[in-house]
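job 3f2a | input accepted
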Amino acid sequence: MTSPHHQPGCCSSSRRTFLSDLGMGFTGAALGAMLADDGIVRASEPEGWTPPSGQPQFAPKTKSVIWIFLSGGYSHLETFDPKPALNKYAGKTFDDTPLDNPIDSPLQMKRFRSVLAEEINVRDVYPSIYPMQVGWKKHGEAGIEVTDWWPHLSNYVDDLCFVRNMWTTDNDHAAENQIHTGRHRLDEAEPSVGAWAHYGLGTLNENLPKFVVLGGPTRSDTRESIDSYYLGPQYAGVPIELDPTNPLPFGQRQSRQSVEEQRNEYELINELNELTAVEYPQDQELRARIRAYELAFRMQSAVPEAVDLSQETAATADLYGLEDDATKLAGERLLAARRLVERGVRFVQVYPSSYGVWDSHQKLKANHTRLCATIDKPVAGLIHDLKQRGLMDDVTIVFCTEFGRTPGLEKRAGGTDGRDHHPNGFTVWLAGAGIKKGEVHGETDELGYHALGEGHYVTDLHATVLHLMGLDNRRLEIPGRKRLEMDHGRPIHEIMT
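job 3f2a | predicted structure (497 res):
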């Protein structure tokens, strides 16, 4: 089969696939990444854009991104966008208040795209207002409202920038993929934001992958959230386990294989390439670059060192909550993220909690009380740690989820204490390099239902991150792959320094 990226005189896609696959998983991906750095396995780019060799397209404001994702959809109302009107009108229907009924807003259908049965489509329009399940207050010099479930993070509101007018279109959990790819499940899948960052930038450390995933993908059907699709498998996220003895599943040398045997395997790849070079004598760059395959060999020692948390001090362990069972999982993953960006990894995608746990259809108060406590101290610890190490000028944090929760009480199945999925308006926050401090951008209506104005579709968040990294999202094009206007998004310049 002919690759759409094949050009006369270039190495064939079959050879690229062979060389990438022969490296036994992770090391093969490492080889692909090294070849990509030299522009060897890249598609031809539009006129005026040279495949990256470590340089962004324009002056970047950040070197690395830590993308924190909470699966299941946390309630924006009980976290970062509290609404007094929910208490004032608790128990009333939307029509019983003096406020405009948000269901009648043209935004309701403009931003809604369901694939569920018609009888379930009412799931996000429950009209009986459910009160706030936690108190809140203003924090910091900026006076930003945060709920009482975030006692540690609220101490850092003057370092954060909240975007309160995000929206998406999927009202079910395929939205977990959508927040990362920008595409609804009815559409062709697009590469994830981390894959675009990997594709567009050179490396800061050739001994480590550029796009690392900690704690995910959360299950097989969320693989899209870290995938690279038509960019090529070498740009997909590399899942890493926080076990220094085996951090690279499928990438470790077999116990029965010696170091020398593995080295011989790599040398065989070079010899096979020599044979292919007879057919493509002009491909001297590839022939020379294949000899750098030993770099992949070195990754097997660099990655275990990077995730060896035992090197950290007791004070750092306490900062991230590693000694507390409730916060240990999130703390370990976020501390590992700091260690990885410190060593030059471009994009670290962190899942600090498991699949769907924030999905509080019932018992919202009990669930969010417990879940916020598992995340609050580790995330605050990450911010504090980056600040004390001088890394907030080099690293951007993104804290997000797939959608918010309904202002109305979910009454499906006799529900009395939960909120349903809510794609119409929700909150994310950013901090660090290139981001304004102590800011709130955008808003939802008084009930927290709709993102007001144009709001920001999820790819605006992608475009913002890529812009901070020195990449023009609209110039990240592949010949033969026309992206939609929505796929590109627009950078949220209002929140950038």
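job 3f2a | Residues 1-30, 38-47 have pLDDT under 50 and may be disordered.
job 3f2a | closed
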